[in-house]
Amino acid sequence: MDWLEQELKRALERKEPSPDFAARVSAAARRGRWGSPRRWMAVAASVAVLAGGGVGYRWREGVKAKQQVMLAVRIAGGKLNRVQAHVLEVTQ
Amino acid sequence: MKTIVTLLLWGGLAATLGAQQLQLNFEYLAAKASAAVDVSLNGATLQFAAGFLNGKDPQEAQVKKLLTGITGIYVKSYEFKTDGVWTQADLERVRNQLRAPQWSRIIGVKSTEDGETAEVYVRSENQKMTGLAILVAEPKELTVVNIVGSVDLNSLSELGGHFGVPKLEVTPGQKSK
């Protein structure tokens, strides 16, 4: 057997894995499929922040629209009242 | 293809619902005004706003009820520090859009004493009210209101504040003397 064969035999010889190898592979596979709980918590927090921001924006826009409606109705009603008052003055 | 065309037509129709019935271009007056109010609310915004009106508040409940027949509210109101900023031509531009047969003036008041002009117009189609226009001009103030849809004038008047003014009896198509 020459030196090359010996080198090849040594390089390709069977080696036993470490005792926790199977557990580590299973854990890595689980992480790959569902992600870590910490990652899920971060995603959930982001969704909550975005949803909260959306609700807040919608609420602010709604309040603004309501104020504009109240202002417009007040002006329109006030002017109509004024016209009526003028008509009353003229007719009396 | 036919479906797409139909959808586009319906979309266009929906977009025009509640559209302003008057062209009110008063930007040049707004620039000279000491106080200006410019409110443009289409049907979608009014529906959205109605959801935020508190039904337990008497005034807000009344506004909510009023909004059921309205698809647009447009208000332009300007106050000036001096007289003569707006001109008769400004009023005429608005009046020219409020012509028969769709529009009819139900009230017209002109006071030479304080130089005030006040007019109320109603737009009607098939004996049904479809719009209201209020034009009030004073030496230092100009206000134009256009409400699209069916409006209860007495409710609107009440929302403007009571001053012991009797109720206004108006039927679509009625004209001022």
Q: Please bin the fraction of helical residues of chain B.
A: 25-40%
Strand content of chain A: under 5%
What is the number of helices of chain A? 3
Largest sheet of chain B: 6 strands, antiparallel
Largest interface: A-B, 27 and 42 residues
N-to-C terminal Cα separation of chain A, in Å?
Answer: 132 Å
Total domain count of chain B: 1
Low-confidence stretches of chain A: none
Radius of gyration of chain A: 39 Å
Oligomer state of the chains in this structure? heterodimer
Chart the SSEs and their pairings.
The complex is a heterodimer of chains A (92) and B (177).
Chain A: H1 3-12, H2 21-34, H3 37-91
Chain B: H1 2-16, H2 27-32, E1 35-42, H3 43-50, H4 58-67, E2 70-79, H5 88-95, E3 103-111, E4 116-125, E5 128-138, E6 141-149, H6 153-159
Antiparallel strand pairs in B: 1-2, 2-6, 3-4, 4-5, 5-6
Features:
heterodimer; A: 92 residues; mainly alpha; rod-shaped; B: 177 residues; alpha+beta; six-stranded antiparallel β-sheet; 6 strands; 31% helix; globular; disordered C terminus
Description:
The complex is a heterodimer of chains A (92) and B (177). With 92 residues, chain A is mainly alpha-helical. Chain A has one domain (20-91). In chain A, 86% of the residues lie in helices and 0% in strands. Chain A has three helices and no strands. Chain A has helices spanning 3-12, 21-34, 37-91. Chain A is rod-shaped. The mean pLDDT of chain A is 85. Chain B is globular. Chain B has one domain (18-159). With 177 residues, chain B is an alpha+beta fold. The longest helix of chain B has 15 residues, at 2-16. Chain B has a six-stranded antiparallel sheet with strand order 1-2-6-5-4-3.
